[in-house]
Amino acid sequence: MSMYGVRFTGFVMLALTLTFCIQASPSRQNAPALTNADEEIATKLAKVKRVYIESFGEDVASKQAQAMVIDALTNSHRFIVTEKRETADAILKGVGLEKTSQELHATSEATAVGGAAGGHQATLSGGPGSISGSSSGGFVARSAGIAESQATTETINDARMAVRLVSSDGDVLWSTTQESKGAKYKGATADVAEKIAKQLLWDLDKVQSRLKPKSSTQP
Predict the structure, then answer these.
(1) Can you list the domains of the chain with their CATH numbers?
(2) For residue 29, what are the CA distances in angstroms to 14, 38, 205?
(3) Contact 178, 98 (CB under 8 A)
């Protein structure tokens, strides 16, 4: 066999080997497999239906945050919010912080207008031994200016919450931290509570979609 034939045969064998390895290896686009711990947590989270919301604190802001979270989860229609801790599948615990600050906005504007006018006239006549003359003049100047300034203050509400969902046996099933400066039609605290509910629903859907393929293969 010629040297060219040996090289060609080696190239074909290398290409076939690479093709086999690519087909045998799992796709990179697939989600990574769940570990035993992840699978146990995901299975518990997927089964949560009844939730008890623990107190966020005794101050007014914390009580308001707790009430907003209860309202957001209730309106999601995915959970039953209960006030009996012993009947809940999981407990939502968390802390809330609301901070108020003032921002100063100042603007100024000035306009100036000015004008001027002037004139002069002179006449001189005379002869031997006699000289006569006349002179006239005038000047007008006007100016005007307007200055306007305005200062306003804006109240900024900044709300933050860190929550976690804990199973009845003490395992942390889910956690998130959200913050907001307020939305167009709602305050900062209400917006944070809605973000928490949306994040929980999104993560729950993701967990259920990852568990579904495995459960569908079981007889």
Answers:
(1) 34-96+160-216 (3.40.50)
(2) 25, 19, 19
(3) no
Angstrom distance (rounded) from CA 169 to CA 157: 37
| CA–CA distances in Å: residue 112 to residues 139, 145, 148, 173, 216 | 21, 4, 12, 68, 80
Cα 64 from chain centroid (whole Å): 21
Is pLDDT at 7 greater than 50 in this prediction?
no
CA distance 98 to 179: 10
Q: What is the pLDDT of residues 114-164, one digit of tens each?
A: 666 666 666 656 666 666 666 666 666 676 667 677 767 666 778 899 999
Q: Kindly report the pTM of this predicted structure.
A: 0.60
pLDDT value of position 10 = 47
